[in-house]
Specification:
134 residues; mainly alpha; Serine Threonine Protein Phosphatase 5, Tetratricopeptide repeat; two-stranded antiparallel sheet; 8 helices; 2 strands
Length: 134
């Protein structure tokens, strides 16, 4: 069920997500090197991300998205900044996700991930929310 929840989150299928959680799927599971929230962020699926946060998905839960050598110890904010998931980035910031958290692999903040990826849209959103360089 956790795998199905991740796929549903990636595809913004909120109705299916609700049924899966009712049957026991875990909103903080990590079946594919990323929680359902991470997969929603990856595809900028705002409805799925909002639903997951409303149902206790942890936005600051560290993960290994993309496997070893890529997203070691990163969180949803890192991924949103890297992939220009602007809608989800705004949501995470509005919901109090930690914008200064560092990943374990590069010791970088979400702003660092946005700068590395040359994602000006993400940089602008982070600055709009008052996120400073570290």
């Amino acid at each position: 069920m956790d795998e199905a929840l991740s796929w549903s989150a990636r595809n913004n299928q909120v109705k299916a997500m609700s049924q899966l959680v009712n049957f026991g799927a875990n909103v903080n599971s990590n079946p594919y090197c990323g929680t359902p929230l991470l997969w929603a962020i990856y595809s900028d699926s705002i409805s799925a991300a909002r639903w997951l946060l409303d149902h206790r998905a942890d936005p600051d839960l560290k993960h290994d998205f993309g496997g070893s050598g890529h997203g070691g110890g990163a969180v949803a904010m890192h991924l949103a900044a890297q992939y220009r998931a602007i809608n989800c980035l705004r949501l995470l910031l509005a919901r109090g996700a930690d914008p200064q958290v560092t990943d374990d692999l590069h010791n970088s903040t979400p702003m660092g991930w946005a700068r590395f990826g040359e994602n000006q849209d993400s940089i602008n959103v982070l600055q709009e929310f008052g996120v400073k360089e570290m």
